[in-house]
Amino acid sequence: MLIFLDIDGVMVPAKSWQRPEILEDGFVAFSSKAVQVLKEVLSQNTNACIMLTTSHKSRFSHSEWIEIFQRRGLNVNQLNSLVENTELLSRKEEILNWFNTNEIQEDFIIIDDDKSLIDLPKFFKDRLVLTSSLVGLNAGHWDDIKAIADRQALVFH
Fold first, then answer.
1. Which residues of 15-36 are buried (b: 16+ CB within 10 A; e: fewer)?
2. How far is CA 41 from the centre of its chain?
3. Cβ of 82: how many Cβ atoms within 10 Å?
4. Residue 145: partners with Cβ closer than 8 Å, 6 or more residues away
5. Residues 6 or more apart from 85 whose CB is under 8 A from it?
6. 21-27 long-range contacts, CB within 8 A, separation 24+
7. Of 151, 156, 157, 100, which Cα lies nearest the Cα of 129?
8. What pLDDT is attached to residue 155?
9. Helix, strand, or coil here: 11?
10. In angstroms, rounded to a whole number, what is the distance separating the alpha carbons of residues 128 and 84?
11. Helix (H) or strand (E) holding 129
């Protein structure tokens, strides 16, 4: 499974009134609720690949991102990212461009808080879990993730 994953508003709730905790690697701490849900998704899909869509994707190297996830309790075996967004495209355009230039051979899910994704074509929107920026990914999204996976004939236990 390919998991298109945003960070701000998904793994890190965007609370403007609260300064996020920065860990020793120079990046913000993930929400424990988001970590638990993503950990469950990864445990059910051992060949899952995280595809970073976050605006931070070019800020760290591949190995640094692996370490960032590990330091936050997530063992990510496969990790990629969308190309740097030098053209200032919307998240919707970034994702659609990726699909236009890559042949998808596996099931996928998009986990993001970006409202531009509401306008994705149905094929993609049916695989979208849209989080609230203020809350982020949490247990309430687990049923949505399982439903998407079930529609794609993935095995969840």
1. eeeeeeeeeeeebbebbebbbb
2. 11
3. 18
4. 37, 41, 109, 111, 129
5. 55, 94
6. 23/71, 23/72, 24/71, 25/64, 25/67, 25/68, 25/71, 27/56, 27/60, 27/68
7. 151
8. 39
9. coil
10. 22
11. strand 128-130
Q: Which residues contact 12 (CB under 8 A, 6 or more apart)?
A: 20, 28, 29, 30, 31, 34, 136
- CA distances (Å), origin 83, targets 44, 51, 57, 113: 27, 10, 8, 19
What fold is seen in the domain 2-151?
Rossmann fold (3.40.50)
Q: What is this structure's pTM?
A: 0.90
pLDDT tens digit sequence for 95-111:
999 999 988 777 899 99
DSSP tag of 82: P
CA distance 1 to 24: 30
